[in-house]
Design a protein that fits this description.
Its cofactor is Zn(2+). This is STE24 endopeptidase. One of its GO terms (molecular function) is metal ion binding. The structure is a single chain. The protein is mainly alpha-helical. The protein contains 16 helices and four strands. It has a four-stranded mixed beta sheet with strand order 1-2-4-3. It is globular.
Length: 432
């Protein structure tokens, strides 16, 4: 009876969370349609999206495919767990007579199954949705090559971590603390290795060569009092028509990356504003701050995971051997919805950092260029920039583009009037 109740609660938690986020998506789509209708003139003139209905259609089909994938994935997971397949596989693994070997096979299997379940949806997204809307640049062969490489990389990263955590469980008295330390160390290591080792497996990164763009980049860094050669152009156009820019890493491994699609689609002043925005994350130490925030959240997760495994309640919903990797897996499934439901906390922090970065971009370049860059990004990516407030709370780690455009223009006007967005006495040169 207790197992039945636990199973019902387990399913209710996972399905209820998925239903909540599906509801948010439906509310968001309806809100976008109403707002685009009311703001059609602004969308056309400000963002340069000549066909707002096309952007809405892209949003609808992308949301639909993503939602369907989430539900199918959940359905497959529950079927495997409650059909007896999961318990049989776990029981078979115990015949290996080695907890670490069992864990390696189990974790590798989970990664592979998850990747395989996502294949049909990834194919539809790439060769139907992205193709129809003019974003796909990948051939089937390149897609397959990327999928295989991503699977290998994911397995190579996740399996050793899973084995290490199980080893902690079986040998370290306070294993959640050891697992937490490993997780934080992995985040730091991944932040360093990703731009140098992993990303180059998929894209080419070329330092900006001499020319007008390099001169413009140097002007931004000179204005900021920085000097670096860690600005790269990435050949994103080999796979997608979307445009973007991002900052990654810290220390010697930190770099700013500009998509070649962004470089080709923006004027120099707009690119300078994007670069200034990314540079602000560097100067203000946002990467380190996010690592600290992630470490705090992970501490809560591992404390909760340790309590769940120690109590044995995670073994109640599903008939399976009570091995450490089974307990950790089921515990992670219980905590995953809670992480999704607390995402507004992380988003709140990110929103503050993004607003600070926009303010710095206005300070170093100008508001008109930053507003133009934001409009170009929205148009190039067929973005519908009017999220429902609830959807925004749970999904947006950047302010909506209309808000950002209004704000950078307001900051530019205030700057022209001699006002400053920075508090008195603050030092704009501090950073990592």
């Amino acid at each position: 009876m207790l197992s039945l109740v636990a199973g019902v609660l387990f399913v209710a938690l996972l399905a209820g969370t998925e239903a909540f986020f599906t509801l948010l998506s439906v509310l968001n789509l309806r809100h976008q349609e109403r707002t685009v209708e009311a703001e059609r003139e602004w969308v056309v003139e400000e963002l340069g999206i000549d066909d707002p209905e096309r952007a809405l259609a892209y949003e609808r089909v992308s949301t639909g495919v993503g939602t369907l994938q989430s539900w199918v994935t959940l359905g497959v997971l529950l079927l495997v767990l409650f059909s007896g397949v999961f318990g049989e596989v776990a029981a078979t693994l115990t015949g290996l007579d080695s907890a670490l070997l069992e864990t390696a096979v189990f974790v590798g299997g989970v990664v592979l199954v998850a990747r395989l379940v996502g294949v049909p949806f990834d194919l539809v997204k790439t060769f139907v949705v992205e193709e129809v809307y003019g974003f796909n640049e990948r051939s089937l062969g390149l897609w397959l090559r990327d999928w295989l490489l991503q699977t290998v990389v994911s397995t190579a990263l996740v399996v050793p971590l899973g084995v290490a955590v199980v080893w902690f469980v079986t040998t370290v008295p306070v294993w959640p603390a050891a697992a937490w330390a490993l997780a934080v160390g992995t985040i730091i290591a991944f932040t360093v290795l990703k731009p140098r080792v992993i990303d180059p497996l998929f894209y080419d990164f070329e330092p900006l060569g001499d020319g007008d763009l390099k001169t413009a980049v140097d002007e931004v860094f000179d204005a900021a009092g920085y000097r670096t050669e860690q600005v790269y152009e990435m050949n994103a156009s080999t796979r997608t028509g979307h445009s973007n820019a991002y900052f990654v890493g810290f220390g010697p491994a930190k770099r700013v990356v500009l998509y070649d699609t962004l470089v080709d689609g923006m004027d120099t002043a707009a690119i300078q504003s994007v670069l200034a925005h990314e540079l602000a994350h560097w100067r203000e130490g946002h990467i380190w701050k996010f690592v600290g925030f992630a470490a705090l959240r992970l501490a809560v997760v591992f404390v909760a995971l340790g309590a769940l495994v120690a109590s044995g309640v995670v073994y109640l919903p599903v008939a399976a051997p009570q091995t450490p990797y089974v307990g950790l897996f089921l515990g992670a499934l219980v905590l995953a919805p809670l992480n999704r439901l607390t995402s507004p906390l992380e988003n709140y922090v990110s929103l503050q950092y993004e607003r600070d970065a926009d303010a710095y971009a206005v300070e170093v370049t100008d508001g008109a260029a930053m507003a133009r860059a934001l409009s170009t990004l929205a148009a190039d990516n067929l973005s519908v920039p009017f999220p429902h407030p609830w959807y925004e709370t749970f999904h947006y780690d950047h302010p909506p583009i209309p808000e950002r455009i209004r704000r950078v223009r307001d900051l530019a006007d205030r700057s022209a009037d001699g006002q400053s967005d920075r508090p008195p006495g603050s030092d704009p040169s501090t950073g990592d």
